[in-house]
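Consider the tokenized backbone below.
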């Protein structure tokens, strides 16, 4: 698959299929389907694909890189002012100001220095997006998110600092093994702080996440098809864009 358009009709079909699965998973756990928002993860897909999904009625989108979001979303937002943009990728402090200007939700607040940078940018720009704390729920060394042992203190500090703009928690459980205990742990952690929003569940596990209390699921490949460049959601290694020549290889030529 090259990431080419499937056409608006199949986009609608893909969206309907995901919504039906969300409804079934919600019903299975006795929850109303409208308690769960679908965040369509459009990273690596061109703005035209996002526009197709907007035409199907989808309004919430997730991007993991500030630069890519900046290139795609301002124009789309002019057409659809009710579009809601989530940043779901690791955020460098030097991108915090752009993120604060661009995003409606930043899901990856995971360290004190980033909290400082977001607070400064919000003060300067007069705008503070909704914030989620990302927890490294499986304590995986290669993964972003605050460590389990530091999570409570960090969440408490963020709550003090950002008040009700901090609405919840986000996690990416380990790829291997049963994700449910991790989803449950995130739900328990959020409940202890009275936080309502739980961003958990991706294409491979969103039904389980819903059954464990997810209020937002982040679905990419099940909606858009495979990404042009396979990009792992472990957020570990930044792969170069397709077609990029490694610098050393070009020197050797
Ligand atoms: C890419 C990504 C997703 C979507 O992953 P799929 O498996 O394609 O649904 C969700 N969350 C984060 C943080 C991601 O980076």
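A designed sequence for it:
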């Amino acid at each position: 698959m090259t990431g080419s358009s499937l056409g608006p009709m199949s986009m609608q079909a893909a969206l309907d299929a995901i919504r039906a699965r969300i409804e079934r998973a919600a019903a299975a756990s006795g929850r109303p389907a409208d308690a769960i928002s679908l965040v369509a993860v459009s990273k690596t897909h061109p703005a035209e694909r996002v526009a197709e999904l907007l035409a199907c009625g989808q309004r919430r989108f997730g991007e993991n890189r500030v630069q890519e979001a900046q290139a795609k979303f301002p124009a789309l937002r002019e057409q659809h002012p009710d579009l809601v943009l989530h940043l779901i990728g690791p955020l460098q402090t030097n991108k915090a100001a752009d993120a604060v200007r661009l995003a409606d939700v930043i899901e990856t607040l995971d360290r004190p220095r980033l909290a400082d940078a977001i607070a400064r940018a919000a003060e300067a720009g007069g705008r503070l997006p909704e914030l989620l704390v990302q927890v490294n729920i499986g304590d995986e060394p290669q993964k972003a998110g605050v460590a389990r042992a530091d999570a409570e203190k960090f969440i408490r500090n963020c709550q003090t600092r950002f008040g009700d703009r901090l609405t919840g928690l986000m996690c990416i459980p380990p790829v291997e093994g049963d994700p449910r205990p991790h989803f449950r742990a995130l739900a328990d952690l959020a409940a202890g702080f009275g936080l309502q929003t739980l961003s958990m569940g991706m294409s491979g596990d969103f039904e389980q996440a819903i059954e464990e209390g997810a209020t937002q699921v982040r679905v990419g490949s099940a909606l858009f098809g495979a990404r042009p460049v396979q990009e792992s959601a472990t957020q570990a290694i930044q792969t170069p864009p397709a077609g990029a020549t490694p610098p050393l290889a070009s020197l050797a030529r």
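The pocket of pyridoxal-5'-phosphate is lined by residues 41, 43, 64, 88-89, 172, 202-204, 218-222, 233 (CB under 6 Å).
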